[in-house]
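Exercise: predict the fold of this chain.
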Amino acid sequence: MTTRRDDGSPVRGFFGKHVHVWGCGGLGSWIAEFVVRAGASQVTVCDPGTVTGGLLVRQNYVEDDVGASKAQALARRLRAVNDTVAIHVHNGALPDAAALATADVIIDATVSIAVGHILEQLAASEGPHPVLAQVATDTRTGTLGLLSVSTPTTTHGPSRIDTAARKTVLADPALELYHRLWQDTPDDDELVPTRGCSVPTFHGSSADLAAVAGTLATFLGMHLITPGTGTHLVALPHASGSPHHRFLPHYPTPATP
């Protein structure tokens, strides 16, 4: 018998769980690794993208992955971290319905409105659903994080929870640091990394993105141990402002009979 070094840590909430990570980019690629290291029994990763050289600055890939499917490349790394965890790969944007039925936790790191709608439908369906989470960071610095969580009995998905948090945050001057999470991206916040690249990307280092991802994974782990629905706002210590953490609980309005 052994005692894991992370025993008592919030990420132990992932232990033995089947976790889906949708979107294997700046946040998702790091979160997937943290989940595997925390002892999840199964991890499903899905992303339709391909690894390019410019992604290595801030995403969890290496030179040998360039040109490969992001989901396949991340799966190789996760198996190298822990070969006892079952890693499932979907190269499309989403897994099939059969895969969804086996999930304990779904983490949406795609920043996709369409994916958000799918999670809303899942939350509104009859009976308990997996824990649903949506994560994001700011495009200007990559030092802010957003985590919206919907517990299995909550009929609102992460997108509706996020919308409610947006109204609260934008109306509160004390939370001005986080306003940029919902504001349109200014042109000068986009970065075209190389001549001929037609897809703008955003600022932020691997250290920043990994730190934000780790913080969000920790808070999500807490919700797996003690259920709660709402939105976490986080800022790294060197972010230009405060507070460095705020949790906004979400209380859905009961339906009118």
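Check your answer against the key: The chain has six helices and ten strands.
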